[in-house]
Write a structure and sequence with these properties.
Layout lengths: L2 E5 L14 H8 L5 E5 L8 H14 L3 E4 L6 H7 L2 E4 L4 H10 L3 H9 L4 E4 L1 H4 L28 E3 L15 H11 L5 E3 L5 E5 L2 E5 L4 E4 L5 E4 L4 E3 L6
Length: 238
């Protein structure tokens, strides 16, 4: 059965890196001995070694092993043998390009659909969607396609924040998502705030964290899915 943990962010408030996500990670890995393969491809301004050194202690503290894919000579072989996958945040365009460059997009989809647990945060959540068209990132590189893993049947907007900060005269997140929905009227977008995650098992999902999720759809209308609620993945298209 497909199992996904799609987190909005690596941090919440003043907490440390993934500190808010202890129980969320345990939910998907079930406190079983697991060797997690980490994909650091979204990192741009720091090395893959540095990124691994940030994430590895978090998983070790929770009782799991973690090793980054950049230590393997063959990235595809690493994914083929992985027990679970964690895809970190950063720049989504860079992440997707590197996934394509290493021939991993279809392979990851196949492994996750076959039951390999998938954890992503920020950019790692964006690439779990059908496309990366609702990322908040700058397109600093050009991947061969915006098509991503397509592990859920809707788009997600991580780091969702409502309204505009004082003095900001650009578009709000709601306005940007409205533009997306005008150009792609059949799509749906789920906005998740900092610290929030979607935990998906098979064709159902649960909103984790203290904040509700927001669904944006037809006629620029939005509705809430309460924290702790379970829903069918296909119901987002209704």
């Amino acid at each position: 059965m497909k199992k996904l943990l799609l987190m909005s962010s690596s941090r919440k408030g003043n907490l440390g890196y993934l500190e808010h996500a202890d129980e969320q990670i345990h939910t998907i890995l079930e406190k079983k001995p697991t060797r997690v393969l980490f994909i650091p491809y979204a990192g741009v301004t720091f090395s893959f070694d540095d990124y691994e050194n940030i994430v590895k202690p978090v998983y070790e503290r929770l009782g799991y092993e973690l090793v980054s894919i950049h230590h393997f000579e063959n990235a595809r072989a690493a994914v083929e043998s992985a027990e679970a996958l964690a895809v970190g945040g950063g720049n989504t365009f860079t992440l997707l390009k590197r996934l394509y460059d290493n021939g991993l997009v279809e392979l990851v989809r196949e492994r996750v659909e076959a039951g390999m647990p998938y954890m992503g945060w920020s950019a790692g959540t964006n690439v779990a969607c059908p496309t990366i068209r609702t990322t908040n990132d700058m397109p600093i590189v050009e991947p061969p396609s915006f098509k991503a893993f397509n592990l859920v049947p809707f788009q997600i907007n991580p780091h969702f924040i409502s309204g505009k900060p004082a003095g900001h005269n650009g578009e709000s997140r709601e306005e940007r998502l409205a533009e997306f929905l005008v150009m792609s009227p059949g799509e749906r977008v789920v906005g998740i705030k900092e610290g929030t995650a979607l935990y998906c098992e098979g064709d159902r999902a649960t909103v984790l964290g203290e904040f509700d999720a927001l669904v944006f759809g037809r006629d620029n209308q939005s509705r809430q899915i309460a924290s702790g609620s379970r829903f069918n993945l296909d119901s987002i298209a209704d």
